[in-house]
Amino acid sequence: MNRNDIRIGLFGFGVVGQGLHTVLERTPGLRARIGRIGVKDRSKTRSLPPELFTFERDEVLDDPALNVIVELIDDADEAYRIVTGALRRGKAVVTTNKKMLAEHLQELIELQRQTGTPLLYEAAACASLPVIRNLEEYYDTDLLDAVEGIINGSTNYILTAMHRDAVTFAAALARAQELGFAESNPALDVEGLDARNKLVLLLAHALGLVARPEDILTVGITGISELASSYAREKGLVIKLVAEARRLPDGGVAAAVLPTLLRPEHELARVHDEYNGLITQSLFTDRQFFLGRGAGAVPTASAVLSDLSALTYGYRYEYKKLQQQSARALAPAAAEVDVLVTFGQGHAPERADFSRIHEYFHSEQQGYYLTGTIGLARLAAAAWLRQPGISVVRLPQPLRAAQAAPVASAAEVEAADCPA
Predict the structure, then answer these.
(1) Active-site positions?
(2) Is the predicted pLDDT of residue 414 greater than 80, yes or no?
(3) Considering its fold, how many domains does the chain have in total?
(4) Are residues 59 and 87 in the same domain?
(5) Are residues 137 and 276 in the same domain?
(6) Neighbour count for residue 114 (Cβ, 10 Å)
(7) CA-based nearest residue to 150, from 303, 279, 281, 282
(8) Which of 243, 253, 384, 417 could form a disulfide with 199 if both were Cys (CB 3.0 to 4.6 A apart)?
(9) DSSP per-residue letters across 22-76
(10) Environment class of residue 345 by beta-carbon count within 10 Å: exposed (0-12), middle (13-18) or buried (19+)?
């Protein structure tokens, strides 16, 4: 079937699905039209003729008039059934479901090889940022050392509102939901899981490593304490949720998603509202920065549109870095990170978990904090990490190889008051 004339079987007609319909209407140069739409809710009133819609998955997948499946639903398990079913039927697929992709990436790569059918997902990484294709094509032979970015627009919108506009977390989240940046159930966003799933995709295309999502240390923004925010203001720093993957000297890779304190001059410190920003570091091109909208109907739909356009000239991912085997494996035991930990009476981190403690302060009014260096694997395994009342924020240094020095107990510095 000639994909220069794209006939779309669309799954999902929510915010992004309607955005896709809008951008297709405004892009007459791309010969693409929606032929059938699979939806779940039978009671919802929709803006298009009812004969376009069906409630049966196979009515779309088995329709011989449709040659491209676009999957835009929020159910990862159903998305997996749709995507694999389409690929096995020889239909090209465009998807935005980063959770489904992250959980099944190795299998989906193999299925593409077996069927010879492309699966594209530019919108699943950073919405409007053209990240995946740049990693695949522009950096195809460049030895990337690291990717680091703000890759979840919802959490960035919330943190911007809290820092710049001095609104509460709850108010910022509610506003993000009203604007369509955050889902009605925002847990994937605010707990850092959406950024983690996107980091899995970036790892594959940037460093040539397929990782399991659960193997990446992930801390969201819900536990950021007022004391951590006070510390940031006192030091002139900004808190952002940052995903980072960095090649270690031994060929392993350190990766994590953590709330991070950034200096004002850092590129990501100037990424506000629903925008995403991604930094690449490489042997040949040094440091480069991508900036664009990371949430919303039209920005996400524009990335879907880009994938549809790519299909018209037979584009598919070649997973070049995977073929080069440029990275060996995740190696959290070989990496360390500097962190700020705030806590209250009776909820303290184990100081023995830290290789170095740099500061230790306490205040009867605001609680306690320490700053120190800890192994990435040790932090991920720490029982205290998820305890109520403990907040962990990364200090403004990148992930790095662990030092060979033995565990040392630094002198503790006490003060009558924490920074206010």
Answers:
(1) 198
(2) no
(3) 3
(4) yes
(5) yes
(6) 10
(7) 279
(8) 243
(9) HHHHT-TTS-EEEEEEE-S-SS---SS-GGGEES-HHHHHT-TT--EEEE--S-H
(10) exposed
